[in-house]
From TrEMBL:
<dbReference type="InterPro" id="IPR054548">
    <property type="entry name" value="SCP160-like_KH"/>
</dbReference>
<feature type="domain" description="K Homology">
    <location>
        <begin position="165"/>
        <end position="244"/>
    </location>
</feature>
<dbReference type="GO" id="GO:0003723">
    <property type="term" value="F:RNA binding"/>
</dbReference>
<feature type="domain" description="K Homology">
    <location>
        <begin position="555"/>
        <end position="623"/>
    </location>
</feature>
<feature type="domain" description="K Homology">
    <location>
        <begin position="1127"/>
        <end position="1194"/>
    </location>
</feature>
<feature type="domain" description="K Homology">
    <location>
        <begin position="860"/>
        <end position="937"/>
    </location>
</feature>
<feature type="domain" description="K Homology">
    <location>
        <begin position="782"/>
        <end position="856"/>
    </location>
</feature>
<feature type="domain" description="K Homology">
    <location>
        <begin position="1013"/>
        <end position="1122"/>
    </location>
</feature>
<feature type="domain" description="K Homology">
    <location>
        <begin position="474"/>
        <end position="547"/>
    </location>
</feature>
<dbReference type="InterPro" id="IPR057778">
    <property type="entry name" value="KH_Vigilin_N"/>
</dbReference>
<dbReference type="Pfam" id="PF22952">
    <property type="entry name" value="KH_11"/>
</dbReference>
<dbReference type="InterPro" id="IPR004088">
    <property type="entry name" value="KH_dom_type_1"/>
</dbReference>
<dbReference type="InterPro" id="IPR036612">
    <property type="entry name" value="KH_dom_type_1_sf"/>
</dbReference>
<protein>
    <submittedName>
        <fullName>KH domain-containing protein C550.14</fullName>
    </submittedName>
</protein>
<keyword id="KW-0694">RNA-binding</keyword>
<feature type="domain" description="K Homology">
    <location>
        <begin position="700"/>
        <end position="777"/>
    </location>
</feature>
<keyword id="KW-0677">Repeat</keyword>
Length: 1204
C-alpha cells in the first residue's frame, strides 16, 4: 500500500512540475490539504496561444453559417483537448489530474483568490481532495483531484463548469438524424446534457420536419452547443458519434416519378442495380388504398445517390420513348386486371395502372412503346373478360319491408357472420363480394358481385343467394338500438350470452363491428317455425332477454375532467399503451376523448361504474405525470412459476416483447422466476396482471395423450383442419397429431404415431378430449371400406363437373370416397384406377353400385365418325338445334343440351370439315347414325328456290336475334339461306329456300308478304291540337296496337308544349270532404282553360299499313281531333283515394257512364296516395262531370250514382 501511494504522489508531483516556469521558478502552490508542491517549468510543453489550430476562434458573433461536417468539406472546428490523467489506488480511491491552459480559463476580475474559493467549494460539496498549482509565465493551472470515482468525476465537471472558458459550437447534421439525437422522450439528449454539462439546442420540429416520403437525406439542420470548452466538445463528440452511426447508410423515397412508369422501371431493375449493394422497392401500379406511393432506395449513401440519378435518367428516357393511353373498364373487372399486371408487363412491355377500389374512376392507364400499346390493350381486355361476372341487387327482394335498404343490409351482415356465403363460394367455385359494414350504413342499395371461371357456377351461386335472401323475410329480422359501448358487455365472455339466446330462442344476434360506429343490433330468426305468430313470439323473447342484459350492463354517462394538456400524452402513453392499460384496450367499454370541449378537457363516456373507475385512474396518472421521472420509475417484483418462464418469453422473445411494446414497460426475467417490471405505474400493474394470468393459465394446463389409430386421424382433423380448428377455438386448447414419418422411424415409434395430444386448461382439454373420442368411436363404427377398380376414362364422369357428382353421392350415402392414381400410361385405353369407399356397410354398397353403373356406361361408350356433306349440316341441326334434339332424344339419348352436344359434335363454324363425331352408348350411337343417314337421303331429294329481297328489308326476315328466320324455318319445315349483304352490291339480295315444294312456296309467300312495302296516307292535323291528340304518345301506340298502323310526321318538327300556369295541384286543391262555410264543395276543384300550343298551321300524320286498316285508323284520328278541339278546359278535382272505387264502379261502368253523359275525358289516378282526378272537355261538360262524380261519391249506400 505504501509503495503504491508513493508512486501516486511521484506522478502527481511530475504533473505539477510541468505546470511551472523553469527560468523563474515561483512557489505558487496553494496549501490545500497540508501539501506543498514546487513546480519546475518544462519549456518543451509550453503552449503557443496564437496557434489557431490548437485554439480556434470561438463565440457566437460570427454570422457565417458553419459548413456541414457530413459533406465533402472538412470540419471547421477542431477539438480543444484538456490534459487529464487518472490513477487508481489500492484503496478504491482514484486520483485524476486536470490541466487548464490559460486560454481555456474564464477571465476573472477577482483573481486567484476566487479560484481558490471555487476549489474549496468543490472539495466541500464532493468530499474530494483538490490540489492546485498555477504557472506564472504560461498561466496553466493543474488540479490534482483525489476521492471516490463518482465524486472525482463530479468534482472535475464542476471545476470545468466554474473555471473553464464558455464556448458556443454550431454543427450541421442531417435532418433525418434529429430524432436519434433526441431519443425516445428526449432520453438520449438528456443523457448528453447530464454527462457533459453543456446546453444543446435543436431547431423546432415544425421548422424542419416533412412528410416522411419527402425527407431529403441531404437536408441539414443546425445544432447549437453552449457550455465550458471541454463539456461542449464532449457533447459535440457524442452527437458526431450518433450521426456517424446513422448516416453510414441511408434510405430515400422518390416521389417525382409518376406511378405509370413503375412497371417499366421494374423491367430494368437489374440494370439499375448494376451489382450495387442496394435495395430498390418499386411499388405495384395497382393500389389498394388512396395513399401516396414512392420508389424507395436504401443502402450505402453514395450508392443510393447513384441509383437515384440513374432512376431519374431512365424516367426521362421513358418519357421520350413511351406513350400512355387510358380507357374505361367496368369497375368490377379491375381486380382481374390488377392480378395480371406482371403478366401483361412481361408479355407486352407495357405497364398498367389500376385506380384504387375507393376511387370513382373506372379508367385503366397503359404506358409502353407505341408499337406495343395495341397488344397491351388487347391483353388487358382479355384479362378483364377472363372471368364470368354477375351482380345481384338484393335491396329489392322484400318490397313489404318498411325500409328495403336497411333490411338488405341486415341480411348481408347476418350472412357475413354465419358463413353461408362462404359455403356457396366453395360449392360453386366462385367469389362473392358484398358491401362492407361501413358501405351498408351509407348506401342507397345493396349489390352483391359474383365472379367465377364458369358462367354456370356463377349462375348457380346467384340462385343460391336468391334462395337465402328470399328465406329471410321481414318478419324474421328486427332491429334494436343499443349503445355501442355496451355491446361487449351484452355479448359476454366468448359470446356466452348471445349463444344462450340462439340456443333458447333460435334467434341470432348480430352486433356491428367495433370499427363501425353503429348502435343498431340485428335480431334474425334462424329456427324452423313457419307461422308469423311463432316467429314473432321467439323474436319478442329474444328482445326481452337482451333488455334484461341491458339492465345489468349499467347506464351510459359522460363525464369531463380538467387535466393540463401537457399531461395528455403521458396519460395516453406511447402508442396509447397507458390508456389501454386504464381502459382495457380492445376490450374497453368506455370511450376517452382528449381536448374536447376545451384544450385541457378529457371526456370519458361509457357505463357509469366504468367511467368512475377510468376517471379515477386518469387522475392518478395525471398526478404521477407531474414528475415524469417518478411516474416512469415505478417498479414491482413478483414471482412467476419458473417452469413456465420459456412460455412467458416465447419464441425469440416474442411473447414478452409484445407485452413490453403494448404497455411501454421494462420487464426483466430473473433466476427462478423472479420478475421485475418498471415503468408508469398503471402500465406496470397491467403488465403484472397479464403475466400473472398467463402463469395461472399455464398452471391449470392439462395434457391428454389419446391413443387413436393413425388411419382415423384424417377424419378427426377434417377437411383443411376444419374440425380441429373448431375444437381449438371452442375450448382454447392445442391439439397435435404426429407428423408423417418414414417407414423405419414408424417402426421404431409405432406407439407414438397413434398418439394425439390435447393440451389446454383442464376444463377445456377435458371437453375437447370427449368430443375427439366421440368422433373416433363414430368413425370406427363407420369405417367399413371396400376397394373397387374402374376405368381411368370413367373417373371424369364419376366425379362430375367441379366434383358435383361425387359430392352428391357422398351426401346421399354418407360415405367417404377416395380416388387413387392410375398406375398405367395415359394412352392406355384400359387403364384402371382404384377407388376406396368408407362408411357403414349398407351405405358403402349403395355407393359402390352407383359408381360401377357409371363405369359400365363408360365401358359401353363408343366413338364413331360419320362423313356428312357440310351442305346437310344445317338440315341435321335444324332451327335452334330442334332437329338434332328430336333425333337424339328419339334414339334414347339425353335431352340436356350440354350432354347432347358432347354426344353429337359438328365441325366448328369456319372449319372446313365433313366429319360428324358421335360418342355414347353403342345402342344409342347406332340409332343416331341410322337416323342421320335417313335424313341425308331425304334431303338429297329436296328442292330449292331463290327469291330476291330488297337489301334494306333483309333484316325483317332475320328478325331480332334470328327469331323470325327460325320461326319461318320451323313453321314451313324449310331451310332459309341468306347470304351476307354487300354494302356496295346490288339492291336486291338472293334468299335461297330449301325444302319440299309446298313448304318452299308457302315460305316464299310469307317472305314476300313480310317485305312488302306498306301503303300510306297523310292526314293534316292542326298543330295547336297535335299534343292533345297524341296524348303523350298513347294515341299513336293505340293505332299501332289496334290497327297495326304506324305513324310518322314526315320529318316535321313536333309542336312545343304550351307554357301555362296551372292553377292548384294536389297540395293546393280543396278536397271534396273539406269543410267550407260558403256552401258544399264550392272550392273542391280548379278549372283551367287549355292554352294550346300557340302554333298555327298543320302537321302531317303519315299513316302506314294495310289499306283497310289505314281507313279505320284515319277514322279514329278524325274522331280524336274533333274531341281535342272540344276539350277547351281542364279540371282538377281532389277526391279521397278511398272513394275512387265508387267513381269507377264495377268493371268501370260508373265512370264510362259519366264520360258518355258529360262528353268529357276523365282520368282517375292509379298511384297510391294520389287523390287528384283530371277532367278534360268543354267548360259545361266539366261542370256536368264534376256533379256526376260528387253524386257517385255521396250516394246513400256509400257509393254509386243515384238513379234519375
Amino acid at each position: 500500500m505504501a509503495l503504491a501511494h508513493a508512486a501516486l504522489q511521484q506522478d502527481a508531483l511530475e504533473d505539477l512540475a510541468h505546470a511551472s516556469d523553469d527560468d523563474s521558478s515561483v512557489d505558487t502552490a496553494t496549501n490545500l490539504g497540508n501539501q506543498t508542491v514546487k513546480d519546475k517549468i518544462d519549456r518543451s510543453k509550453e503552449v503557443n496561444l496564437s496557434d489557431e489550430n490548437a485554439f480556434p476562434s470561438l463565440g457566437t458573433g460570427s454570422s457565417t453559417r458553419p459548413a456541414s461536417l457530413w459533406g465533402k468539406m472538412k470540419p471547421s472546428l477542431k477539438p480543444v483537448t484538456v490534459s487529464s490523467s487518472q490513477v487508481v489506488t489500492a484503496s478504491d480511491l482514484v486520483t485524476e489530474t486536470l490541466k487548464l491552459e490559460a486560454a481555456q480559463q474564464q477571465a476573472r476580475s477577482l483573481g486567484r483568490n476566487q479560484t481558490s474559493d471555487v476549489v474549496r467549494d468543490v472539495q466541500k460539496s464532493t468530499g474530494t481532495t483538490v490540489q492546485m498549482s498555477t504557472a506564472q509565465k504560461t498561466g496553466t493551472t493543474v488540479f490534482i483531484i483525489r476521492g471516490k470515482p463518482d465524486a472525482v468525476v463530479l468534482a472535475r465537471r464542476t471545476l470545468l463548469k466554474e473555471l473553464g472558458k464558455k464556448v458556443v459550437l454550431k454543427l450541421l447534421v442531417p435532418s433525418l438524424v434529429r430524432p436519434y439525437i433526441i431519443g425516445s422522450k428526449g432520453r438520449t439528449l438528456k443523457t448528453i446534457i447530464d454527462k457533459t454539462g453543456a446546453k444543446v439546442q435543436l431547431p423546432k420540429r415544425d421548422e424542419t420536419s416533412k412528410v416522411e416520403q419527402e425527407i431529403d437525406p441531404e437536408e441539414l439542420v443546425e445544432i447549437t452547443i453552449e457550455g465550458d470548452f471541454d463539456g461542449a466538445n464532449q457533447a459535440r463528440k457524442e452527437i458526431e458519434a450518433i450521426v456517424a452511426e446513422r448516416t453510414s447508410s441511408t434510405s430515400i423515397k422518390i416521389t417525382s416519378i409518376p406511378s405509370d412508369f413503375y412497371g417499366l422501371l421494374t423491367l430494368r431493375k437489374a440494370e439499375i442495380k448494376a451489382g450495387r449493394d442496394v435495395k430498390i422497392k418499386i411499388p405495384s401500379a395497382s393500389f389498394t388504398e388512396d395513399v401516396p406511393v414512392a420508389i424507395s432506395v436504401s443502402g450505402e449513401k453514395s450508392l443510393v445517390a447513384e441509383v437515384k440519378v440513374q432512376l431519374e435518367s431512365l424516367y426521362e428516357d421513358l418519357q421520350r420513348t413511351t406513350i400512355p393511353t387510358s380507357f374505361p373498364v367496368a369497375k368490377k373487372q379491375h381486380k382481374f386486371i390488377a392480378a395480371s399486371i406482371q403478366d401483361i408487363l412481361t408479355s407486352t412491355g407495357c405497364s398498367v395502372t389500376v385506380p384504387p377500389p375507393s376511387s370513382t374512376s373506372d379508367h385503366i392507364t397503359i404506358r409502353g412503346p407505341g408499337a406495343n400499346i395495341g397488344a397491351g390493350i388487347t391483353l388487358v381486355m382479355e384479362k378483364a373478360n377472363s372471368m364470368a361476372i354477375d351482380s345481384l341487387e338484393i335491396s329489392r327482394a322484400h318490397q313489404s319491408s318498411a325500409n328495403q335498404v336497411h333490411h338488405a343490409a341486415d341480411i348481408s351482415n347476418f350472412l357475413r357472420k354465419t358463413d353461408q356465403l362462404q359455403a356457396l363460394e366453395k360449392n360453386h367455385s366462385v367469389s362473392i363480394s358484398i358491401p362492407s359494414e361501413a358501405q351498408l350504413l351509407s348506401g342507397t342499395k345493396v349489390v352483391y358481385d359474383i365472379t367465377g371461371k364458369s358462367a354456370s357456377g356463377v349462375s348457380e351461386a346467384r340462385a343460391g343467394i336468391i334462395a337465402l335472401v328470399n328465406g329471410l323475410k321481414p318478419e324474421k329480422i328486427q332491429r334494436l338500438t343499443i349503445e355501442p359501448l355496451l355491446h361487449k358487455k351484452i355479448t359476454g365472455p366468448k359470446s356466452k350470452n348471445t349463444i344462450n339466446i340462439r340456443k333458447q330462442h333460435e334467434v341470432e344476434v348480430v352486433f356491428p363491428s367495433p370499427e363501425v360506429d353503429n348502435d343498431q343490433v340485428v335480431l334474425v330468426y334462424s329456427g324452423t317455425a313457419s307461422t308469423p305468430e311463432d316467429i314473432s313470439v321467439a323474436m319478442q323473447q329474444a328482445q326481452n332477454a337482451l333488455k334484461e342484459l341491458l339492465l345489468t350492463a349499467g347506464q351510459i354517462v359522460s363525464e369531463s375532467i380538467v387535466v393540463p394538456s401537457k399531461h395528455h400524452s403521458v396519460i395516453m402513453g406511447k402508442n396509447n399503451t397507458t390508456l389501454n392499460a386504464i381502459t382495457g384496450g380492445s376490450d374497453a367499454t368506455v370511450r376517452v376523448v382528449f381536448g374536447q370541449p376545451k384544450e385541457d378537457s378529457i371526456t370519458v363516456r361509457g357505463p357509469s361504474n366504468d367511467v368512475t373507475r377510468v376517471i379515477k385512474d386518469i387522475r392518478e396518472v395525471a398526478a404521477e405525470a407531474e414528475n415524469s421521472e417518478v411516474a416512469n420509475s415505478f417498479k414491482v417484483e413478483f414471482e412467476f412459476p419458473s417452469q413456465f418462464t420459456k412460455n412467458l418469453i416465447g419464441k425469440g422473445g416474442a411473447n414478452i416483447s409484445k407485452i413490453r411494446d403494448e404497455l411501454g414497460v421494462r420487464i426483466d426475467v430473473g433466476d427462478e422466476g423472479k420478475i421485475t417490471c418498471q415503468g408508469p405505474q398503471r402500465n406496470v400493474e397491467e403488465a403484472k396482471s397479464r403475466i400473472t394470468m398467463l402463469g395461472d393459465r399455464l398452471a391449470d394446463e392439462t395434457t391428454f395423450k389419446l391413443k387413436i389409430p393413425a388411419e382415423f386421424h384424417g377424419q378427426i382433423i377434417g377437411q383443411g383442419g376444419k374440425f380441429v380448428k373448431r375444437l381449438e377455438d371452442k375450448y382454447q386448447v392445442q391439439i397435435n397429431f404426429p407428423k408423417t414419418t418414414n417407414e423405419s422411424a414408424a417402426a421404431e415409434e409405432s406407439s407414438s404415431k397413434n398418439e394425439v395430444t390435447v393440451k389446454g386448461g383442464k376444463k377445456g382439454a377435458t371437453a375437447a378430449k370427449a368430443e375427439i373420442m366421440e368422433l373416433f368411436e363414430y368413425e370406427n363404427e363407420h369405417s367399413h371400406s371396400v376397394t373397387i377398380e374402374v376405368l381411368q376414362k370413367a373417373v371424369s364422369q364419376i366425379v362430375g363437373k367441379s366434383g358435383s357428382a361425387i359430392n352428391e353421392l357422398k351426401d346421399e350415402t354418407h360415405t367417404r370416397i377416395d380416388i387413387g392414381q392410375s398406375v398405367s400410361s395415359d394412352d392406355d385405353a384400359d387403364a384402371l384406377v382404384s377407388i376406396v369407399i368408407t362408411g357403414k356397410k349398407s351405405q358403402v354398397e349403395t355407393a359402390k353400385k352407383s359408381i360401377l353403373e357409371v363405369n359400365s356406361e363408360v365401358a359401353d361408350t363408343v366413338t364413331r365418325t360419320l362423313i356428312v356433306d357440310p351442305a346437310y349440316h344445317r338440315t341435321l341441326i335444324g332451327p335452334g338445334g330442334s332437329n338434332l334434339r328430336d333425333l337424339v332424344v328419339k334414339a334414347g339419348g339425353p335431352d340436356d343440351a350440354s350432354l347432347r352436344a358432347r354426344m353429337v359434335r359438328f365441325p366448328r363454324t369456319g372449319v372446313d370439315s365433313n366429319e360428324v363425331v358421335l360418342k355414347g352408348s353403342k345402342k344409342v350411337v347406332d340409332k343416331i347414325s341410322k337416323a342421320i343417314e335417313k335424313i341425308i337421303g331425304d334431303a338429297s331429294s329436296q328442292h330449292s328456290e331463290v327469291t330476291m329481297v330488297p337489301k334494306e328489308q333483309v333484316r325483317i326476315i332475320i328478325g331480332r336475334g334470328g327469331n323470325k328466320k327460325s320461326e319461318l324455318e320451323s313453321k314451313f319445315s324449310v331451310t332459309i339461306d341468306i347470304p351476307r349483304a354487300d354494302a356496295n352490291g346490288a339492291a336486291d339480295v338472293p334468299v335461297k329456300v330449301l325444302g319440299s315444294e309446298d313448304g318452299i312456296a308457302s315460305a316464299i309467300a310469307e317472305i314476300v308478304k313480310l317485305v312488302k312495302v306498306p301503303e300510306s296516307e297523310t292526314v293534316q292535323v292542326p298543330r295547336k291540337l297535335h299534343r292533345q291528340v297524341a296524348d303523350g304518345g298513347s294515341f299513336i301506340r293505340k293505332l299501332k296496337i289496334d290497327y297495326k298502323v304506324s305513324v310518322d310526321h314526315d320529318g316535321h318538327e313536333i309542336p312545343k308544349a304550351a307554357t301555362k300556369a296551372v292553377q292548384g295541384g294536389q297540395n293546393g286543391i280543396a278536397r271534396i270532404d273539406d269543410d267550407d262555410d260558403e256552401g258544399e264543395h264550392s272550392n273542391a276543384w280548379s278549372v283551367t282553360e287549355v292554352a294550346g300550343s300557340g302554333e298555327s298551321g298543320d302537321i302531317p300524320w303519315v299513316l302506314k299499313g294495310d289499306a283497310a286498316q289505314i281507313a279505320k285508323a284515319k277514322k279514329a284520328l278524325s274522331s280524336a281531333v274533333s274531341q281535342a278541339a272540344s276539350q277547351t278546359h281542364v279540371g282538377h278535382l281532389s277526391v279521397p283515394a278511398a272513394k275512387h272505387r265508387f267513381i269507377i264502379g264495377q268493371g268501370g261502368s260508373t265512370i264510362n257512364a259519366i264520360r258518355t253523359e258529360s262528353g268529357t275525358k276523365i282520368d282517375v289516378p292509379r298511384n297510391q296516395g294520389d287523390e287528384v282526378i283530371v277532367i278534360k272537355g268543354s267548360k259545361e261538360g266539366l261542370e256536368k262531370a264534376k256533379a256526376l262524380i260528387l253524386e257517385a261519391t255521396t250516394a246513400p249506400s256509400g257509393g254509386g250514382r243515384r238513379e234519375h
